[in-house]
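Issue 218. Parser rejects a valid record. Input:
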Amino acid sequence: MSVLNYLLSGSKLKKAKTLSTAARLEDGEKADQLFQEAFENFSSVSSSRAAYSDALHNWGLALVNQAQKKSGDAAIKILEEAITKFNLCDAVKTDHLGASLDGGVALMGLAKAKGLNVDDDLYVKAKESFLNAENIQQGSASYNLACLYALHNDGDSCLEALEKARDCGLIPDEQDILNDADLDNIKPLVWFSEFITSLAVEEEPVKEVKVADDVEKVEESDTE
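Output the parser choked on:
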């Protein structure tokens, strides 16, 4: 590969990210068109670049976002492709946080799209992916694990994971949690309401009042 093509692949990655972001804001054919342009730019990124693993991760993430706009076989096909990209990303760069975290999300999404039981191997693989993300960065996948535990009606593990996500500052907004269907099994539990309340009752930081130097000087002159 020539130096020019190597440098151009960097601009392709930037353009691909921009197109992916724009595609998320659109629907129907317009969204698909933008996603396709993004994928073409991702595919142009050189495998010799240090950012190649990030290109694969962002490519997989874009596919997950596209799948969320689909249903049935169309969503399944796109999610399977996304998982392939995340696996390749992890092969290129071991313990890539994005590949582990978003790879788990894709696996869960695929399991749901296929209407599988929560004990299916896809859910098991999703949990393994989330646990790997936790090993890379504590708290990064705690909320995702909480959702998995809730689907399995494991209230104790769910609460522990939610508290860890909260303590690490990596938890969704209160309303997003209340609207999350993955947590439906544990929402009737007493501790869930208490947990939601704990998110709302956070102490505001005490602001220190500093006296400006010029004010101090005025006060000094008044006492002379």
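Fixed in the parser; the record now loads. The radius of gyration is 23 Å.
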